[in-house]
Amino acid sequence: MAATSSPPETDKEPNWFSRMFSSNSSTSQGSSSTNRVTSIINPSFESFGDILRFRRSADYHPRQQQATMDESLVDIAINAESDISSLADKSKGTIDFFHTPSGAITTTQGSHYADWSTIDWLSDQARDRLRHQVITEQKHDSMWKRFVAFHDALSGWLCVLLVGINIGIIAAIVDIGAVWLTNIKIGVCLPAFYLSQEQCCWTASNQTYDQYQHVHCAHWHGWSSLFHVTSDTAAEYVVNYIAYIVTGVFFATICAILVRTFAPYACGSGVPEVKTILSGFIIRGYFGAWTLLIKSIGMILATSANLLLGKEGPFVHCSSCCGNIFARLFPKYGQNEAKKREILSAAAAAGVSVAFGAPIGGVLFSLEEVSYYFSLKTLWRSFFCAMIASLIVKILSPFENQHLGLFYVGNRYRWFYFEMIPFIILGILGGLFGALFIKLNLAWCKIRKTTRLGRYPVLEVVMVALVTLIVSYPNPYTRMPMSTLIRRLISSCEPDDESLLCDYRRNITSAYEKNDSAKPLSGVWISMGLLFSALFTQTILFIFTFGIKVPCGLFIPSLTLGAITGRIVGILVETFVYYRPNFFLFTIECSATDEQCVVPGFYAVVGACAFLGGVTRMTVSLVVIMVELTGGLSYSVPLMCAALISKLVGDALVGEGIYDAHIKLNNYPYLDIKAEFIDQSTATDLMENKQDKNELIMLPRDGLTLSDLITILRTHKYNGYPVIASIEEASIIGFVLRRDLESIIQQRTLSNIESNMNTCISFSRTTQQQLNSIHLYRLLNRSPTTITLDTPTTTIIDLCRKLGAQTILITNEKGHLVGLLTKKDIIAYVKQKKLK
Questions:
Q1: Nearest-CA neighbor of 408 among 168, 620, 626?
Q2: ∠353-359-361 over CA atoms, to 5°?
Q3: How confident is the model at residue 584, as a pLDDT?
Q4: Counting beta carbons within 10 angstroms of the beta carbon of residue 647, is it exposed (0 to 12), middle (13 to 18) or buried (19 or more)?
Q5: Among 24, 317, 387, 754, which residue's CB has the most CB atoms within a 10 Å radius?
Q6: How far apart, in Å, are the Cα atoms of 69 and each of 105, 135, 141, 420?
Q7: What is the pLDDT of residue 772?
Q8: DSSP assignment letter at 735
Q9: Is the separation of the CB atoms in 790 and 682 below 8 Å?
Q10: 3-state secondary structure of 262
Q11: CA–CA gap between residue 135 and residue 110 (Å, rounded)
């Protein structure tokens, strides 16, 4: 740490920091005045050097005037490089802008919180309140300060605007790249290689469709035709099969290598980590620029490899990366972690908006599933950000219909009251599937983390991709992209539809007549067998795929499996209605309408909602997303029923969604704000059950030397230390953070000023100047969160969840400090109780 003496200035050229804080007068071409700054730690001193220096020359005279705040406010309001945390006056909860000159503002990158730590919500919110107060009071001084205040008030809207535009552009690029690479696996459009199979055949005059509704034309050439293999032979099938596997494995391998090499945080869905970070946890680099770039490229490659994963969840991570990057341009958010989370919440809403084309559902997703604190102001900005992002995708993406057309059925379908029974069955199946998937996926992830398999993530990706492609190609329904399969499953069967899925005996004059006009033929049952096979294989592959080291979401796979199940149930109900037309429920409902009584495509929509709800336990946001996707408000009741039943069944079997389960698996310090905790224990019980029963380190108000302080900082590396009146009387004076104490000691070292390790450290409020002492009173947080030993545990948990308390001090009946609890201690206690 600091040495007892420093070399004389004549022997060594002082650095820029020493020259800035030197007490000797230094002349320059522009000014001959002394360059010093006013102390923010002890108001009785005239300069920062008074804290660090113990002897002054006899001819020293303090300055009579302080520097102005003009440059300071401009830097703080506009310059994202200004780190205002080092100027924090803990006695006021934030920076004293009125008495802090511009020279005291240092420029350091990033936040003042350490990696893998939790933020102090109360302190950051207090800092922002005083910051806003200062700028508001000074806006009448000049036109420039009025502009600064206007910029500060508008910065939140500007930030979310940039986030929405950027994530919309990224989503359009990802859509274009994913569609093109997905079609590369099956062939090439020779007139224009950059077109997909569907686009290639748009202008062709000889379009044909096979029994699975795949379009074919002369412009599109499969890999077998490129190698001049005779069509309709075994050789053609083998060549296309090999090309499908080789290209898919190649895409997956490149994706895994990019993630492994450049951005390890780009793997997975990202939603569990986003939830943890929004709750107040710090993970450095998780929202970085490299993570955004590699995750965007990885989404294109992973989805093109036909792996059982989606890009909807990773879009939430990408949009949060955009929010973090653009927040740096506005120090109101970039230098305040609590305020930054407002931008991240709005960004998460934009991620779901571009993924599904559902801006309202995205806002509700951020509110229900991701955000920890969601104020009304954040709601408005989230709505604006989601709207802008969805608009940009609609303008830029030529495949915009993939979002709006994924489940779009309009108001074509009509449901009847007796169909609530199969809808409830689909909800139960969705809850069962969600519980099964969560259990098995967590078991596999634990095996990956505890065995040698976790050491070879690229090899695991290659093996999963190889097995997936080998199994998927023989089945036409698994060979096609999942988004295409969903559109096939939710579509209704028209009279001129000759696909196997719509192989019905129909009456030409009346397509929806009940007696023998919709009798399922052999093609329907063949499709049923293929769908059962797809459901079985895709479920197993989904369990092993989610969690591999590539960008992988679970929205589209869950929707696909639910749509398959829903279509199967719909066909069975339709068949039952056909063969039992006189059943009393069918007689009452079906005879009163000229429309088709049972539509299997609508069952696919309800099944998709039920399965996704069973996996994620989403309710309100899920229903709104599905209503926006289908385009029919009349479907809200069946969708609500399926989502609610699936959540109830899933909670009864597992108790948590997939995101919360992965948060626990990774041991993130997340305290669920929506969970109910019933316990009769008190702070005394919580202290006794602490996992880390470390020694309680208390700093006395007076009597501590610099050497003692350095020893404590080196030996006991805590985030902060309570300050008490004396060792004999442990009444609480305040709480001081470790980073502030280290900052003072570091400034002593950088300034090359003679140090005395016996210098007294004082946290006293007295303003009497002492030459051989350091007064740190203004570093104190004089209103720390304090409870007694009899405080109920539920109250302590609410202090952390609702007030965002990071550290809680515990006193006895005499008001003396007897213990200390951190947010991590409380999270560990809650986990311990749940395991019991």
A1: 626
A2: 95
A3: 73
A4: buried
A5: 317
A6: 11, 11, 11, 68
A7: 67
A8: E
A9: yes
A10: helix
A11: 23
pLDDT in tens, 391-433: 999 888 776 545 545 677 767 778 888 889 999 999 999 999 9
For 531-597, give the secondary structure using H, E and C.
HHHHHHHHHHHHHHHCCCCCECECHHHHHHHHHHHHHHHHHHHHHHHHHCCCCHHHHHHHCCCCCCC
Contact 345, 324 (CB under 8 A): no
Contacts of 751 (CB under 8 A, 6+ apart): 17, 18, 21, 49, 52
Q: How many Cβ atoms sit within 10 Å of the Cβ of residue 3?
A: 12
Closest C-alpha to 825, from 802, 793, 783: 793
d(CA 123, CA 275): 21
**Are 562 and 611 contacting, i.e. CB atoms less than 8 angstroms apart?**
yes
H-assigned helices in 692-822: 706-715, 738-750, 793-802
Closest C-alpha among 754, 744, 757 to residue 6:
754
User: Distance between the two ends of the chain, CA-based, in angstroms?
Assistant: 46
What confidence tens digit (pLDDT) does each residue in 329-373 have? 998 898 889 999 999 999 999 999 998 888 999 999 999 989 888
Give 785-788 contacts, CB < 8 A, sequence gap 24+: 785/122, 785/809, 786/732, 786/810, 786/811, 787/683, 787/811, 788/683, 788/812, 788/813
- Tokens coding 551: 């960008």
* Residue position matching structure tokens 């495509």: 601
**Tens-place pLDDT, residues 671-712:** 888 778 888 889 998 888 887 777 888 999 888 888 888 889
Say if CB 699 and CB 724 are below 8 A apart: yes
Q: Which of 141-155, 456-470, 741-755 has the lowest mean pLDDT?
A: 741-755
Q: What is the dihedral of CA 324, 329, 333, 334, to 10 degrees?
A: 70
Say how many CA atoms lie within 13 Å of 683 toward its Cβ: 20
Local structure of 818: helix, strand or coil: strand
How much helix, strand and coil, in percent to the nearest 5, is found in the chain? 55, 10, 35
DSSP string, 149-172: HHHHHHHHHHHHHHHHHHHHHHHH
The continuous run of DSSP H or E covering 461 comes out as helix 457-472
**Full set of structural domains in the chain with CATH:** 173-204+216-397 (1.10.3080.10), 417-506+516-666 (1.10.3080.10), 683-834 (3.10.580.10)
DSSP 8-state class, residue 696: -
In a 10 Å sphere around its CB, with 0-12 CB exposed, 13-18 middle and 19+ buried, how is residue 405 labelled? middle
Q: How confident is the model at residue 179 (pLDDT cuts 50, 70, 90)?
A: confident
Tens digit of each residue's pLDDT (9 = 90 or more) over 66-98 = 333 333 333 333 333 333 333 333 333 333 323
| Beta carbons of 505 and 521 less than 8 angstroms apart | yes
Partnered with residue 94 across adjacent β-strands are 89
CA-CA distance, 662 to 266, in Å (whole number)? 16
Answer whether 188's CB lies under 8 Å from 225's CB. Answer: no
Given this model, what pLDDT does residue 592 score? Answer: 60
| Backbone phi and psi for residue 189, each to the nearest 5 degrees, phi listed first | -90, 105
In 96-205, the DSSP E strands lie at 187-189
Quote the pLDDT of residue 315: 94
Query: Average of pLDDT values for 745-753?
Result: 64
Q: Look up residue 310 and give its DSSP letter.
A: B
Q: Facing residues of 761 across strands?
A: 704, 774
Asked whether the beta carbons of 280 and 121 are under 8 A apart, the reply is yes
Q: What is the mean pLDDT of the chain?
A: 79
Q: Kindly provide the residue ranges of all beta strands, DSSP E only, lying in 35-158, ordered along the sequence.
A: 88-89, 94-95
Query: pTM for this structure?
Result: 0.81
Write the DSSP symbol of residue 91.
Answer: T
pLDDT band for 30, please (50, 70, 90 cuts): very low
